[in-house]
Amino acid sequence: MKIKYVLIAIVAVIAVLVIFELALTQQKKTEQVLPPVKYEKPVITAQIRQVSIKNFAFVPSDMKVKKGDIVIWTNEDSAPHQIVGADFKSDIIKEGFTFSSTFNKVGKFDYSCFIHPSMKGTITVE
Ligand SMILES: [Cu+2]
Questions:
Q1: pTM over 0.90
Q2: Residue 2 shares a structural domain with residue 56
Q3: Which distant-in-sequence residues (6+ apart) come within 8 Å of 54 by Cβ?
Q4: Which domain holds residue 15?
Q5: How far, in Å, is the centroid of ligand 1 from the Cα of 121?
Q6: Are residues 112 and 61 in the same domain?
Q7: Ligand 1: distance of its center to the CA of 106 in Å?
Q8: CA–centroid distance, residue 40 to ligand 1 (Å)
Q9: Which 8-state DSSP code applies to residue 10?
């Protein structure tokens, strides 16, 4: 009888050791050692450009920006506006809220207000 329990105990210990070893092997497989990279100070040239929306107009209505710049429109009217361009569209912008878009392509981008189509603007990306 005692031998049976000793055998069960030995088998249990072996099983635990095997599971432990498997877990360790699994952990080693997922460990990825990456080489260190020499530090280089990032050069950030992008600028934030501001367009106001006031008195149902974009101010300035024509803006030249550089590739990578971020344009932020701020609604200073009590009326809501919604900016729609070929590549970008805002949600409805309430008074005091902003919308931003990053311009990564060179070109001329016309936009207007979806609610008030007579409100027009252009972002020229150089
Ligand atoms: Cu509008």
A1: no
A2: no
A3: 76, 77
A4: 1-33
A5: 11
A6: yes
A7: 26
A8: 44
A9: H
